[in-house]
Automatic annotation (TrEMBL):
<feature type="domain" description="BRO1">
    <location>
        <begin position="1"/>
        <end position="366"/>
    </location>
</feature>
<protein>
    <recommendedName>
        <fullName>BRO1 domain-containing protein</fullName>
    </recommendedName>
</protein>
<dbReference type="Pfam" id="PF03097">
    <property type="entry name" value="BRO1"/>
</dbReference>
<dbReference type="InterPro" id="IPR004328">
    <property type="entry name" value="BRO1_dom"/>
</dbReference>
<dbReference type="InterPro" id="IPR038898">
    <property type="entry name" value="BROX"/>
</dbReference>
<dbReference type="InterPro" id="IPR038499">
    <property type="entry name" value="BRO1_sf"/>
</dbReference>
<comment type="similarity">
    <text>Belongs to the BROX family.</text>
</comment>
Length: 382
């Protein structure tokens, strides 16, 4: 599987009370605004860890995978109840977008969120850094970013029990991030905002979509391994992950203006995952070629993979342990091949330029996000 990065869903937000800001013209509109605030308050309490649960229950949830999965599942349901109401408010606001009073009301909401991916996110005596953007699309964007992160977490938690369902959820998360990048955040990008969290930029949403697809493909590799697929196919699937992550790096580097506040640890995470799957691809390709009777080429590939891997060992301890285990496994295979070649085959080991290059195969795609909107009219006192 992919390396572990700190939870993308660890976002926090400040309270919003919609009915205190927007002046409802009728009782129906007032009730809808109150319902919107109520649904959001549930989310606020959940992600800010301010809900009324005992410390003992919190510890139990932390150490129980099943309870943690159920908690994440419940949080996705809370978002699924809030998002249609928010979409309806945004649509209504769009119909009155030229009204200056509506603009002032939206500013008075003081929509504030923290970031997991910003390099400037620091903790001080006053707590986490909050970004404020006076635009309802910022609220929608951060809520959908949280939703995608929670889906990704669910896919990870269900992985050991159901590979097929895990792949599906990863693909759904990729679809949420793709929708964010293509449909939601471009309108926010045009706003004159001095500072925004990376989660509210199209480039980072595109990158997150590609990461989720890479994770979905990594699950399909486990399924392929369980079915006894050939080394040649496994090598292509591993390198397909490399190609997805390469694409993510290109997106980040081509959008330096939007992504200039991105965490260096996040960039390292993508790069290390790419290096890890490249190593695995070379290992599978070498084993496949050795099976075909070309042990000299197999030895050359494994040697090259080891040299590259040893140059790219991560600094993060948990990632370093994974790399070292992969390097140890590959070293053992290489020694076996070299010993066999020395005493049996006596094949020449080709130079670096004579070795074949892994070919990639991407077999996953995102599941499009289906926007849900409660079609109920809102009437305001302008």
């Amino acid at each position: 599987m992919m390396l572990h990065f700190k939870d993308f869903s660890k976002l926090k937000t400040k309270r919003i009370v919609f009915e205190d800001v927007y002046a409802a013209r009728d009782s129906d509109t007032l009730e809808q605004l109150k319902e919107l605030s109520s649904k959001r308050r549930i989310i606020e309490e959940s992600i800010n860890e301010s809900s009324l649960i005992t410390e003992a229950i919190a510890r139990e949830m932390l150490f129980s995978s099943l309870l943690l999965f159920l908690k994440m599942f419940q949080e996705t349901q809370k978002l699924e109840q809030y998002l249609p109401l928010l979409e309806n408010l945004i649509q209504s606001a769009g119909l009155n977008s030229n009204n200056s009073q509506l603009v002032r009301w939206t500013s008075d909401l003081k929509i504030r969120w923290t970031s997991v991916l910003a390099s400037s996110t620091i903790f001080n005596r006053r707590g986490a850094k909050f970004f404020q953007i006076d635009d309802l699309h910022f609220e929608l964007g951060m809520t959908l970013s949280l939703y995608g992160a929670l889906l990704r977490g669910l896919a990870s938690k269900i992985l050991s029990a159901d590979l097929v369902q895990s792949t599906t959820i990863y693909r759904k998360a990729a679809g949420v991030y793709h929708h964010l990048a293509q449909e939601v955040l471009p309108s926010l990008q045009s706003a004159s905002v001095q500072e925004r969290p990376p989660e509210a930029t199209s480039c980072v949403s595109s990158v997150m979509s590609l990461i989720c697809l890479a994770e979905a493909q990594s699950v399909t590799i486990r399924k392929a391994e369980a079915k006894g697929s050939t080394g040649s196919l496994l090598a292509k699937l591993h390198y397909g992950v490399v190609q997805l992550l390469d694409e993510a790096m290109v997106v980040l580097h081509s959008a330096t203006e939007d992504c200039k506040d991105i965490s260096g640890r996040f960039l390292e995470y993508i790069s290390c995952c790419k290096d890890l799957y490249e190593l695995r691809s070379y290992k599978c390709l070498g084993e496949s070629i050795k099976t075909d009777g070309q042990i000299g080429i197999a030895i050359g590939l494994l040697r090259q993979a080891l040299v590259t891997a040893k140059k790219n060992i991560p600094e993060v301890e948990s990632w370093r342990l994974v790399f070292k285990q992969e390097i140890n496994n590959l070293t053992a295979v290489l020694r076996k091949y070299e010993h066999e070649n020395e005493f049996v085959w006596h094949e020449k080991v080709p130079t670096h330029s004579e070795l074949p290059f892994p070919q990639g195969k991407k077999i996953v795609s995102f599941i499009p996000y289906n926007v849900q909107r409660w079609e109920r009219s809102l009437s305001f006192k302008f």
